[in-house]
Design brief:
Order of helices and strands: HHHHHHHHHH
Number of strands: 0
Strand content: under 5%
Radius of gyration: 19 Å
Length: 250
């Protein structure tokens, strides 16, 4: 990747940061309005099957090609779906990529809950485990790297990423409150959003330079996140006792 690509990647991530700032005050009870390029998701079983086949095809193509090389007709051919059906669901290739990005986002949501609390007795250790899990997901899945970290990311995906980080920040805060006796932190959601943006910026730089997340950049992301969190969190936060399973669960 040349210097122009690295510059563009940095510009995309800065746009993500500005979009994230604008969304901090968003009411979490209100759903985020879909981007104009996304049609209504199918409700009928046949439509759902074709919709997911198109996303599977886009994912498969991203394994072999770059983002800017993929067109809607190509996606339809890979999915063995009539082009007319593809256009019915997605008016443009960008709309397919946006829906695919939303699918990838669910994988990152799951990482928050899958980090094992007993293995993370401190908030620093929990954060390290979560970043390591995210790095594994990026490095094991080239399409996710290309779509979420690449320099050819679309404007719609950038906006979706901003909204995703906003929701993820609230999820991380809620999860930490379940694991630890968290102190009161003013503007906690905004602060965790900034933390996520710092992590994204470091991981994006690693991808721009190396095409993957290297161990050194993973460590840099952790240092950036922990150092920033230390500006509003104490070094030691008591862990909550594990909740014993009820008799009905045992």
């Amino acid at each position: 990747m040349d210097g122009r690509d690295e510059t563009r990647c940095a510009h995309v991530k800065m746009h993500t940061f500005r979009s994230s700032q604008a969304m901090v005050g968003m009411n979490p009870s209100k759903p985020v309005s879909p981007a104009p390029s996304v049609r209504k998701r199918p409700q009928q079983e046949r439509g759902v099957v074709r919709f997911n086949r198109l996303l599977d095809a886009a994912h498969a193509l991203l394994e072999r090609q770059e983002l800017h090389e993929i067109g809607l007709y190509q996606i339809a051919k890979e999915a063995q779906v009539p082009p007319a059906s593809a256009y019915h669901f997605f008016p443009s290739p960008d709309a397919v990529l946006l829906a695919l990005a939303e699918r990838y986002h669910t994988l990152f949501y799951e990482l928050v809950d899958h980090v094992d609390a007993p293995r993370a007795p401190t908030w620093q250790a929990w954060l390290k485990l979560r970043i390591a899990a995210a790095v594994r997901l990026y490095n094991d899945t080239p399409p996710i790297r290309k779509l979420l970290l690449g320099s050819h990311t679309t404007r719609e995906v950038v906006q979706s990423e901003a909204g995703f980080n906003d929701v993820l920040a609230r999820s991380i805060l809620a999860h930490c409150e379940r694991l630890f006796h968290m102190p009161y932190v003013r503007d906690a959601e905004r602060r965790f959003l900034v933390m996520l943006t710092l992590i994204d910026a470091v991981l994006s730089l690693s991808y721009a330079k190396h095409g993957m997340i290297t161990p050194q950049f993973e460590e840099d992301a952790l240092v950036a996140a922990v150092s920033y969190c230390r500006t509003f969190l104490p070094e030691v936060i008591e862990q909550r006792e594990a909740v014993a399973p009820s008799k009905t669960e045992s």
